Amino acid sequence: SGSHYQLFGEGCPVTCYDLLAPRGCQSLYRETCQCDDGYALSGEECVPLSECGCASGGMYYRPGEVTYRGQSCQEQCTCQPDGSMECVPSSCREGEVCRRSGGVLACRPVGTASCQTTGHQHYRTFDGRSYSLTAGCASVLAKVATATAGLPHFTVMVGDARAGSGDLHGALSRSVTVEVGGHQVTMWPGVTSKVQ
């Protein structure tokens, strides 16, 4: 959408960042998809020039994208539809530290934590507490509770189901379902060739 095929297109296509902070281009022409007139490349898609985001600190941000400023993330800035950055006072929560990862400054968790499930009913949570839950239902093992910069939204579900009547011990089979990045993957124990 907003682009067309060109046999000898510009090697450096017009991007929203270039409109906001132009830089020189020495690339030769090449076969490519080129944004239509009145459009510019924003990430991997061509958008109308009016929908370009913000340039700040040598980085490009799409409208609605959030970044932090200051060595202790004392400002949280959001790219506005008009191309300006709106900033409000901010601070990292307990258990977080302001640091850069992949070039992006944000409040990030300190250290690591793990949770565990054993047997068919026993769980140890991230804070180290142990629980035994009734089998026969699906449980959320882990998920993102609140939006945190740099942490993708994910959910890990554990499902229990009683085995068929042919099983003398009424054993449970367990599935693990992971949802992340718009994808869902379900796995079963002992089934190496089946992933949905």
Automatic annotation (TrEMBL):
It holds the Pfam family TIL. Residues 113-196 form the VWFD domain. It comes from the Eukaryota. This is VWFD domain-containing protein.
